[in-house]
Amino acid sequence: MSSIEPTPEKALSPWQLIYGKVHELRARWYRERAERLPRPVISLGNLHWGGTGKTPITAALAIHFHQRALRVAILSRGYKRRGRGVTVVSRGGGPLVDPWIGGDEPFLLAEKALGASVLVAERRAAAGRQALAVLQPRPDVFLLDDGFSHLALRRDIDLLILPRDDPFGGGRLAPSGRLREPLASATRAHAVLLTGGTAEEARDVARSLSAFGFHGSGFAVALINPPPRMISGEPLPQGARVLVVSGIARPQRFLNSVERSGLEIAGSLSFHDHHGYPSSSLQVIEGRAKAIGADFVLTTAKDRIKLAGRLTIGLAELDLEARPEPAFYSWIDDELDRLRRKGEAG
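The structure assignment produced for this chain is given below.
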């Protein structure tokens, strides 16, 4: 785990302190004005700028609740999607719209979290109201995807996701650090989820954040790469030379995962996060693959959904799955059951 410890407030620059105060005032403003839904809302999000494993964790939690016979609706922003307003991406049986209409991450959640509905909107409360109006039976619980900073909707449980290799984001806000909110914002969270770390490391991170007002629990989440496979579902042939292509926040992490898989990497291309892959990008990929003699293009699940059927070269993916420690599921089940009993009593 990174040796960087949380930066004490007294060591921060005036800019950092001012930026932090703005976030504090924003949180205070929304505390009095946030909308509430008549079902428990569980938010999953981070303090970092992307790349912490939110999507696979959201999918894992949705699947867990579905296995408990709970009806789940995932509410997401649908970043960089086309159109506005509320869009129903799925009703539990897979995507109903393409990733350009629904957003790449909501589309992926609709694929992975079968049994859960997925809705997107700029205002997640509007998506929740629509879910209650059109889904039958109505949802038992809402999962707020990438929701830690979306304060316009009141949540009952806030889960803060931190990566093991950079849990405190350098201790500073952008542009000198990698945080989009101050570490003091962790006080809103009920638990931290440390991706890629051990249970003991997760507890250590939780204890370190107590200096910033956090008093919740810490849990570990393993991020696992299943064997790479063709988009048809077949295993990628042994000895295949691949061109690694990604449009994610932290492409080096993906490249490292491909290296650990033992594949022969002929070359790599990185595009910006949520890249839409216009025809010009496809030409770049095809040209690079031909120039280096790649047998296949290997990409992430999020990029695969936008590249499938659009390349002449074979396409394969290296997926990412989240496996929270059992103690987390015990904790979240107890918390949700408590909330549901409280709602029934009210």
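Interim note for the steering committee: The two ends are 44 Å apart (CA to CA). The first strand starts at residue 41 and ends at 45.
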